[in-house]
Each structure stands twice: as structure tokens, then as C-alpha cells.
Write a structure and sequence with these properties.
Elements lengths: L3 E2 L6 E2 L2 E4 L13 H13 L4 E3 L8 H10 L7 E6 L6 H15 L4 E6 L13 H13 L3 E7 L3 H7 L7 E3 L13 H7 L3 E4 L32 H21 L3 H10 L4 E6 L3 H9 L7 H15 L12
Parallel strand pairs: 3-4, 3-10, 4-5, 5-6, 6-7, 7-8, 8-9, 9-10
Antiparallel strand pairs: 1-2
Length: 319
């Protein structure tokens, strides 16, 4: 798989990134550690050498699974993890990083990210200067190689840039969820920052496997995704019907088409989760798909069947 540069660093990442929220088990159903481990290893074997996780995914469980699965190839993979907004004071950041290092069985993290801005989910509002001072010190110590943020607005990106070099932004971004294009993407392109798109298949919606009236198992957080609300979900189904002929013309699945669209956008890589090795292999194959300008233009119009009716709030869930 081709490699791309992470921001202005010398770190090379894959356009398809293995997402591991589900590996933490919390807020998901039907997840088995053995299958997750096989999936992570299958990602590496298929050429996906960049892995994204977070301390909050199962309270470190996701990081631990990754550490076990890839310990013998650590020097050949890129680890990106995140610190949650309840740990953004200076000492808390330092401690959280050390926990993540232990969980991942490594002595350095390639990309360390602020998961959500301070104040999110009722957490305390900590100054970005204090948090980034800690991250700068972690970088000086060699514990992290690059600094990124997730779920930040353009204004928050601009403020953070006063205190350090921010190499990446991790926002929700897919053909059906495109708020980042208005302000944050232009800023990232101007400043040579990489966009690491999460929910790049709209949490599975863009795979086409959820038909009309789909009901999630109790405990599955996707039931709160705005795209599953009836007023939007009906339009989702209309758009999927129009996307299928494009996927068929390329001999690929709808999910692969969705990933190919994301990585064709400026400065953008796609984070894709998977429950098993088969899904990982399918995701990896999307990295080789090349969409024409005609394809991209048609998909843009189809995606707007859904996105034109969404509110501007970039948060995907009603929690």
C-alpha cells in the first residue's frame, strides 16, 4: 500500500488506517478479543501499518489488544492514540501518556492526540496552553513523535497552533457526513495538516448492510447516530441505491467505494474499523481503488441527498 506523509513530519502512514474503537468493547456488542487480534494482525499483513486507538476505548483495553497483537513488529507500525478530555491538565497528560505506553507495550507513541476539546462531556475547561505544554514536553522526552487533535473546530485549531505544531486533525468525515469541508479542511490544506477521517463508512451505513428498519442490539452506540433517524435514514437508502452502480462498475463493495472516496479528498486518510480479518482485507483493498473525476463528481451529488438535510453540528450522535 502506498504511504503518505503525516503533516510535516517524517512519519509515513497508510491511506487506510485500522480503527480500533470496537476493540475496547465498551459501547459495542458482539466483540471478541480473539477475533479483534486476528483482525489487527490481518491489517498488518494486508499493508495497513497505521493503527488508531484511544485511552478511553474500553479504558485502555483497545490499546492493550494492539500491544499484544503487534509487539513483534512494533518498529514497522505507526501507533496513534488519544488522551480523553478528563485528563488534560499537565500532570494528567503525562500520566495518561505513560499508561498508553504501557498498554501498547512500547516506549514511544508516533502520534498523540487530544481526543475532544476540554469541556466536552462535562469535563473541566483546561487551557489549551497547559495541555500542549505537556505534549511538547512529552515530545522533548521522546515519548511521542507528533501532536494531533480530534474533534476540534477551526477556531480551536488556530488557537492550538499558537503553542505547538499540530500535524493532524481527526474529525468525523464520510460521503454522508461532510461538515469538516466548510472550515476545517481548508485550514488543514493551507497548513499542511493531515486529516484522519473517522467513521469514514458512516459507522457501517455506507457498506449497505443495514436495510430499512434496521435495529441495533441493546448497548450498541450506533443506535444514537443521527443518520439512523427516520428522516435521514430514508434519504440514506435512496443514496445507497444510486451508489451501487458506481461500485459495481469498479467491481468493488459499497464500503470500499466509500473509503476510496474519502482518501481521494485533499490531505485525507480514512480510519476504518473492522470486527474480523475479512473486513480488514476488504478495507485494505480500497486503498488501491482509483476513482475518476466523473466518479467523484457523481458521488458528490449523491452524497448531498443526505448531507443537505443535516444540521451543522459536527457531532454524529445524540448522546
Amino acid at each position: 500500500m502506498e504511504l503518505r506523509m503525516l503533516g510535516t513530519t517524517g512519519i509515513k502512514i497508510t491511506p487506510i488506517i485500522m480503527g480500533t474503537w470496537q476493540a475496547g468493547k465498551a459501547m459495542w456488542t458482539g466483540i471478541e478479543d480473539a477475533e479483534t487480534t486476528k483482525a489487527i494482525r490481518a491489517a498488518f499483513d494486508a499493508g495497513i501499518t497505521t493503527i488508531d486507538t484511544a485511552e478511553v476505548y474500553g479504558d485502555g483495553h483497545s490499546e492493550q489488544i494492539i500491544g499484544e497483537a503487534l509487539a513483534d513488529v512494533r518498529e514497522r507500525v505507526v501507533y496513534a492514540t488519544k488522551v480523553f478530555p478528563n485528563h488534560l491538565r499537565y500532570n494528567q497528560v503525562m500520566e495518561a501518556c505513560d499508561r498508553s505506553l504501557r498498554n501498547l507495550k512500547t516506549d514511544y507513541i508516533d502520534l498523540y492526540q487530544i481526543h475532544w476539546p476540554a469541556g466536552s462531556f462535562g469535563t473541566k475547561r483546561i487551557s489549551i496552553e497547559e495541555t500542549l505544554r505537556a505534549m511538547n514536553d512529552l515530545k522533548k522526552k521522546g515519548k511521542i513523535r507528533a501532536i494531533g487533535v480530534s474533534n476540534f473546530s477551526r477556531a480551536q485549531l488556530e488557537e492550538a497552533a499558537n503553542y505547538t505544531r499540530i500535524e493532524s486533525l481527526q474529525p468525523p468525515y464520510s460521503l454522508f457526513w461532510r461538515q469538516v469541508e466548510k472550515e476545517e479542511m481548508p485550514y488543514c490544506v493551507e497548513n499542511n495538516m493531515t486529516i484522519l477521517a473517522y467513521s469514514s463508512m458512516a459507522q457501517g451505513i455506507l457498506t449497505g448492510r443495514f436495510g430499512p428498519g434496521h435495529q441495533f442490539a441493546k448497548g450498541d452506540h450506533r443506535s444514537k447516530n443521527k443518520l439512523f433517524e427516520p428522516e435521514h435514514y430514508n434519504r440514506v437508502q435512496q443514496a445507497l441505491k444510486k451508489l451501487r452502480p458506481i461500485a459495481d462498475a469498479h467491481g468493488i463493495t459499497l464500503g470500499q467505494l466509500a473509503l476510496a472516496w474519502v482518501i481521494a479528498q485533499p490531505n485525507t486518510c480514512a480510519i476504518a474499523g473492522a470486527r474480523n480479518a475479512l473486513q480488514v482485507i476488504q478495507n485494505a483493498q480500497a486503498g488501491r481503488v482509483r476513482l475518476s473525476e466523473s466518479d467523484l463528481s457523481e458521488m458528490d451529488a449523491i452524497g448531498r441527498i443526505v448531507t443537505d438535510f443535516l444540521d451543522p453540528d459536527p457531532v454524529m450522535w445524540k448522546w
